[in-house]
Each structure stands twice: as structure tokens, then as C-alpha cells.
Amino acid sequence: MKYVMGIDLGTSGVKAILVDENGKVCCEASKPYRLIQDKPGYCEQNPEDWVEQTIAAMKELMTRQPVQRLHVEGISFSGQMHGLVLLDEFRQVLRPAILWNDTRTTAQCTTITEKLRDRLQKITKNHALEGFTLPKLLWVKEHEPDIDQKIDMFLLPKDYVRFRLTGAIHTDYSDAAGTLLLDISGQTWSQEICQAFDISLHICPPLVSSETEVGTLLPQVAREIGIKDTKVFAGGADNACGAIGAGILSSGHTLCSIGTSGVILSYEENHNRELQGNLHLFHHAKKDAFYTMGVTLSAGYSLDWTKSLLAPNESFKELLDGVADVAPGANGLLFTPYLVGERTPYADSIIRGSLIGLDSRHERVHIVRAVLEGITFSLNESMALFRQAGKEIDTIVSIGGGARSKTWLQMQADIFQTEVIQLENEQGPALGAAMLAAVGCGWYQSLEACADQFIHQAAVFAPNQQHVDVYDHLFRLYQSIYTSTRDIHAGLEPYRSI
Q: Which residue ranges does the record assign to the Carbohydrate kinase FGGY C-terminal domain (predicted)?
């Protein structure tokens, strides 16, 4: 039997899976790493932690499945998008990586928008938002000039890990599309944007397709992990790989992915769709394809936060006990998941979360239900934008934390007003990375053929019309909270650093 390995470099940890040629996940391992949040709005990580924990996860797979160690034919990667890793001429890391959910770059986003105006959207198909990579580069240029002078290359998180494992430097189009430096149409780094901000094209890594073979493991790394003669493939951005792992490979297919952030993603054949409301358009990890996407910054993170406050010593299953018995509307309670600001549809780094309607009769279970509903309402704002743009959405594949609870899956069907599909063996972006390796190794002629073998439905959740009617009304109330509280949160902003 032959095997491939899929590695997903997430925000809170790395996950590695071993998959055989029939699509069976034989083994998985996860390793955590810490966030560095020294100031309000700052979110960084030490790239060395990624490397150490990735190698540890790969070693664990080989230790638990020693028979397979000589039969791992390919490895590929998925990774958190937008994060800025800076290297000097000796390929040493210059500072901690600035992550996708870091919001310090509002001023730089304003500068980018004012300088490039409509050219930014024309070239990159996206607006300037704090999460993207270019604003981070400009922040370093402005606030850390000594480091800026030493920059010889920037990389995205998964690409740095792959570089440390192989010695080869590349990035793929799906991850490059999230930097705000890529000419989407030309599939090249934008000389115009680089020149506008005095950024040398030299620091931009070589571009390759996600299925490209970029090398093999360095000898010392291969020995440490316990495998050899294994091909390494470029891989893709986490959302692009998540789409592959959920079979979002043709028009009409839509994905709901709930991890730390939440994503509504829809397949696109080309890059010419007109977008609104801060929807994004990026390259897919499938060659010559694209996807549009809306993002909720604090999706699963909102549930993590709730658990840390209300049930720090309980499991998520225990936290959700009783939620199914609470009627839609959480006994008159609404939650907005703006814990670190919001991206779609508002692109507001100052807005913060709200619990609206609290009274003395509310219990923990009502708050938990309201949090789940609020996360789903936020994702539904992206769904509404897709539908306004004329997209037909008949079914949604749900992956991530939101796919592990039948109550939450039914809630998604009721709020999205469409069938929601749960997968039989949902491994998210890690599976998408493994599928890229499987196709790269020649096991299958296409990702579609691989998906037929690797991906299977487990259940379908249909909307409950009574719940649909209730949620339709509550969603309109939810949408009014942003405009009603925006000025209040702006007034509170000066006090948050205290």
C-alpha cells in the first residue's frame, strides 16, 4: 500500500494525516503552538515553533505507523493565509511572524487604498484589509526600519515550514493571492504595486502551482522523521485546500468552514465576477480555477472564548449539552462574534462583540446557543452577498468545528435556508493537501477523480421551515446591531489598551 501525508499549518496548531491510496486516513497527529499577543490588536507567532511542531507531528505519524515509513510517496501542505515571515540574506528569520488576524495595520490599509484607488481592485481583485500581507510589509517599513533594511525574502507560513524541510523557496498562487501583491489576471507579482510602495520584486518568492513538485526532504530532516525518497509538493492556502478536501471543485459548489475564523467559499471558473461587501477572490489550489470567499474573523474562536469563560474544565461536548433543547432565538438573546473586529461584510477592525437581550432568566445554555447562532448569522451575511451577486446556492458542504455538532449543522441549514452536507471523514485542509500529493504522485489523473475516491457524504440536513421563519426575522435584527453599536465601540477603543 502507498501513502501520502497532508500537513495543515493552522493558527493554534499543526495537523498531519497519513492517507492511503484508497483515501483512508490511517493516522493523524496534532501539535499546538502559542500565540504572541503583546499589545491589543497584535497577533504573532514564532516560525521556529511551526517547524518544530510540524516535525514532531510527522514523527508521531511514523512512530504510530512504522510499517508505512518506507511507503510515503508524497507530502503536501496547507497553511494559514496572509502571515508575514521575513528572512535576511542568510535565510534567517528577522522577527516573529505577523498573522492574518493581526489588526495593527489600519493606517497602512488606508494608505494603500488612497494611493492605488481602483487599480488595487483591478490588479488584485481585493480590497486592502488588515489581514493581508502587503499592509504588514508597510507596517514593518514604517515602524521597524532596521529590520526592513535586512529583508531579502518574505514567505507565507506554510512556505517557510516547507523551506525548512526541503531547502527550497516557493509560494503557490492560492497563497500568493492573499498577499495583495499578486496580479491575479497575469499570475505574476505586480510590479506596479511593488513600485508604488518601494518594495523590491527580489523579495517576492518564486510562484508555482499547488500541485508542483518542489523537492524532497533534506537528508537530516528525513532521518529525524523516519522516511526517505518522498516527493514534496507546494500545497495551498488553507481555504483552498479545505475546498479541495470538501470536493468544492466545480461551479455551483459552496463550502462553510468553521475553524478559528469562519469562511463561506464558492467555486469560480474565472476571475471576472464583480464583488461587493468585502468578499474576496483568490486563486484556487486547483489549477486555473478561483474561488470567492467571505470571512468571519472570530467563528470557532468565539466558541473557544465562551468555553474559556463558562466551562474551562469541560469538553466542547459538555459545553453544548442542552443547546438542542433551546428554541431558536436563545430565549431572546443575540450575539455578534466581533471579538477581534470583523471582515465580511464590514471590514472593521474597531467593532467588538455584543450580547444583546441579557436578562436574569438567561442560563449558560442560552448564551452558548446564542453564540452558535451569532457565528452562523455572521456567516450568513456572506451568503446573502453571494445571493445578491446572482449565485445559486442549493447545497453547502460544512467542515471544521461547525460540522461536528448535529445541532449546529441543523442550525446552519435553517439559517442558510439550504441543505447542509456533512462529510463521512471530514479532515478539512489537511485532506486537501494530501489529495494534492496524491494527484502529484500520479495516483489519480485529476483532483476530481481523487475526490470521487476520497470524499463521501455522511448526512444531509434539510431546513426546518418553522425555524427558517424565526431565523429570517432574527437575522434582520442581527444585521441592525452593527450600525447601532459601531459608534459605541469606537468610543470605547481608547480604553482597551488599559
A: 255-440
pTM: 0.89
Catalytic residue positions, numbered? 238
* Per-domain boundaries in the chain: 2-234, 248-423+464-497
Q: Tell which CATH classification among 3.40.50.1820, 3.30.420.40, 3.40.50.460, 3.20.20.140 matches the domain 248-423+464-497.
A: 3.30.420.40
Fold of 2-234: Nucleotidyltransferase; domain 5 (3.30.420)
Q: What is the pLDDT of residues 217-264, one digit of tens each?
A: 999 999 999 888 899 999 999 999 999 999 999 888 899 999 888 999
Binding residues for substrate: 81-82
Cite the beta strand spans of 162-245 per DSSP E.
171-172, 182-183, 188-189, 207-208, 213-216, 231-233, 236-237
Report the amino acid identity of residue 86.
Answer: L
Averaged pLDDT of the chain: 93
Over the stretch 93-102, which tens digit does the pLDDT of each residue have?
Answer: 999 999 998 9
